[in-house]
Amino acid sequence: MTKTILRALAGETLPTPPIWMMRQAGRYLPEYKATRAEAGDFLSLCYNPELACEVTLQPIRRYGFDAAILFADILLLPQALGADLWFVTGEGPRLSTITTQDEFDRLGRGEMIHDTLNPIYETVRRLRSALPEETTLIGFAGAPWTVATYMIAGQGTKDQGPAHALKAENRALFEAIIDRLTESTVDYLDAQVKAGAEVVKIFDSWAGSLEGADFDRYALEPARIITAELKARHPGLPVIAFPRQAGEKYVGFHAASGADCVALDDSVTPEWAAEHVQPGGCVQGNLASSHMVTGGDALVAETRRVVEAFSKGPHIFNLGHGITPDANPENVQLMIDTVREKAHAAS
User: Fold this and answer.
1) Is the dihedral of CA 138, 144, 148, 149 positive or negative?
2) In the structure, what pLDDT confidence band is assigned to residue 205 with cuts at 50, 70 and 90?
3) What Å distances lie between residue 227 and 141, 149, 252, 258, 287, CA to CA?
4) For residue 286, which of 295, 294, 179, 277 has the smallest C-alpha distance?
């Protein structure tokens, strides 16, 4: 029997939506914290296939999610291209900046990324053999725009201001960065699929800060190019796109990008998305991650609301963004139980 995630991605409406959760292997789990301590630091964990495989499997063992997503980070790709990458405890990632032509010219391309990223592919190979037969393995990468915002600023920013400024001041250089990332993302995801990933997801966490034609050129178009090239290399490969906070731009994103599924953040209601986005294909989402902290009756009610809203079309249940470190693991179990009980009761 085909895996439930793959059935939903193929357009099937299922009585019980399959479930996984963004950042499901992470700091809210005590077993993750123990493995992270064993690794020593975050990057060492990402590049250790044995430990990265272990933390990917932890939420599958605990909760029985329908999919596992590779444990890695979107900034491993710019590191593989030659950027310096390090993490500051309590503050997050830092990168050497790419804001001049000389800095851009020092970036690599093509085959060179695999020398750095081979441990990631080994993690994928290990996961494919270690996961239960019914569990889908998802590979991923950051979208070019989102990764570029970190490369240009050297860190995460609230408004992606440095990237917008470079886009305005030196459009040619900005577009060269986007194009290099688009090309490299194809190669990165291609290698993940060859290693065993069954689905890939493109995370465009900052897509919502692009407006009008800029959204089409720097969020939609790279997603279209990446999806088309991957599907040309791997016919039938399902692709999930996540243009977070796209708002009205979610409408028609399936057809315009070629993605099989569009993941939705929680700034749109499930009822609106069911009417305007789900007719284009499978949708994923979109419970607010804050419910994993607060739990209780509101979690149950909102989970049922999401399931009911999307019940007439293909749907993968997920959060509207990643689970946060302060989440209660018991609330995750309550969410899963609610999705599955509600769906069975309705069928």
Assistant:
1) negative
2) very high
3) 12, 21, 15, 6, 26
4) 277
What pLDDT band is residue 1 in, cutting at 50, 70 and 90?
Answer: low
Distance from C-alpha of 310 to C-alpha of 274, rounded to nearest angstrom: 6
Instruction: Give exposure, 105-132, as e/b (b: 16+ Cβ within 10 Å).
Output: eebeeeeebeebbeebbbbbebbeeebe
Amino acid residing at 145 = W
- Whether residue 199 contacts residue 5, with contact meaning beta carbons closer than 8 Å, is answered with yes
User: Do 26 and 42 form a contact (C-beta atoms < 8 A)?
Assistant: no
Q: What is the DSSP string of 240-254?
A: EEEETT-GGGGTTHH
DSSP element (H, E) containing 176: helix 171-195
Least confident span in 86-90, 190-194, 336-340: 86-90
Active site residues per annotation? 23, 27, 36, 73, 150
For residues 311 and 315, what is the distance between their CA atoms, to the nearest angstrom?
Answer: 7
Counting residues of the chain whose pLDDT is more than 70, the rounded percentage is: 98
What is the rounded average pLDDT of the residues 145-159?
97
- The vertex-110 CA angle with 108 and 113, nearest 5°, equals 65
Q: What is the pLDDT of residue 343?
A: 43
pLDDT at 342 over 60: no
Per-residue burial over 76-98, b if 16 or more Cβ lie within 10 Å, else e, is: bbbbbbbbebeeeeeeebbbebb
Instruction: Look up the pTM and report it.
Output: 0.96
| Residue 12 Cα distances to 2, 283, 321, 335, angstroms | 11, 11, 24, 22
